[in-house]
Design brief:
alpha+beta; 112 residues; two-stranded antiparallel ribbon; two-stranded antiparallel sheet
Length: 112
């Protein structure tokens, strides 16, 4: 997977949570194409060769004179089907208003 693949998935996930994608100047601007490409990849993610390898890694990012070392680490990745929802629907209040409005989240079109 290359960087552009991650950007495409980010665009699709923004749509899932109701956010407008916010690409930077040097990133992908065609949101609908990004979502289409990401959905194609998500349908066949199990066969992606990058996900077939062991991804466990620890990288030292900091060491001081007292022999303290900090690491960034990935302990592994596995696919899992999940179902999400709200115990109570989210609410929001427009700036300057005193009453809450209830959101009606739409279900995602995507799934594993």
């Amino acid at each position: 997977m290359d960087e552009r693949s991650f950007l495409r998935i980010a665009h699709a996930l923004c749509e899932d949570v109701g956010m407008r994608p916010f690409p930077l100047a040097d990133e992908i601007a065609d949101t609908s194409a990004c979502v289409r490409i990401a959905e194609d990849w998500l349908r066949g993610w199990e066969s992606d060769p990058d996900l077939a390898v062991d991804t466990r890694v620890a990288v030292p990012i900091y060491a001081d004179q007292d022999v303290e070392t900090r690491h960034w680490a990935t302990l592994g990745v596995r696919g899992a089907a999940v179902a999400g929802g709200y115990a109570r629907p989210p609410r929001w209040r427009p700036q300057g208003s005193t009453s809450d409005l209830q959101c009606r989240p739409k279900p995602s079109r995507r799934g594993m």
